[in-house]
User: Fold Triacylglycerol lipase 1 from Olea europaea subsp. europaea.
Amino acid sequence: MELSAALKVALLSSLLLSAVKSAEDFNDTLNLRQKSHVAGLCAQLIEPAGFPCSEHNAQTKDGFVLGLQRVSSSSGILRRQMGPPVLLIHGLFMAGDAWFLDTPNQSLGFILANRGFDVWVGNVRGTRWCHGHISLSEKDKKFWDWSWQEYALYDLQEMIRYVYTVTNSRVFVIGYSQGTIISLAAFTEPDTVQMVGAAALLCPITYLNHMTARLPLRLVKMHLTQVLLAVGIHELNFKSDWGTRIMEMMCDRHVDCGDLLSSITGKNCCFNSSRIDFYLEYEPHPSSTKNLNHLFQSMLCSLCSTLALHILSSFSQGLSLTYYHPAKEKRK
Assistant:
């Protein structure tokens, strides 16, 4: 159902006021990011757990400076016998820290490192572990003028190329959620797929018109991303003042924001709710309004599933792909 004109005006007014407030808070947000950049993901989260870690930068063709981390086993023996490189690609509103937020025997990044893999952690543009742009400021509209398509064509391709060049070995890619759709898109490029040995896709997505979760559907019906773009909000940062206000508007009797993850993805058997305060110290990370708008469009696309299958069939020959969705509790 379309929003009434009065409600649209009220929403626009609220967002405009919030945008002004968020501009006042910009310096605080920028200082927080600069502090994170100084410390780095290695120093903040990985090295304190006893794992050697080094920071790396990779510049995309369109000028973004991405942050990557290389993680080794906590065992000296395994460090001397390092296995093949594995690149971890996070999901929407996440970053590389998502692979290390639980204990070493529960976090995939730590588990792979202790199994002898050469673990590389990817962070897409806009997240806090990246380092901005060579010429654009975060205040610039163009800084946020991208979606998951640019993640695939620029960010992931550059990260794969960087890891391949450093290790001189084909890369194993593990993507989660949004990390799977950008992986599938990147693999359509012959030069990229030649550098990939295999891929494991966790909670894979290629289209979203089958979704039934209440919160995303509610946001789509409210035309939220279109309203945000119309009033000039191009950065989606739900830790900002206006981001908090938007969530308060959403969290009415129709959506249980006390269990926000389930409102988006459905029930999760394995979510450790006792650590949610710790998770929220790192998540969510910023993204662009254009990116969310692109994903919302796929929720409305009746032809997306057919197109996705056509794309998959066009490039999957010769590349080993493993899909896993916890709700189905089996590999395909």
Notes: Residues 2 and 221 are 7 Å apart (CA to CA). The beta strands are 53-59, 65-71, 85-89, 118-122, 171-176, 196-202, 235-236, 287-288, 320-325, 330-331.
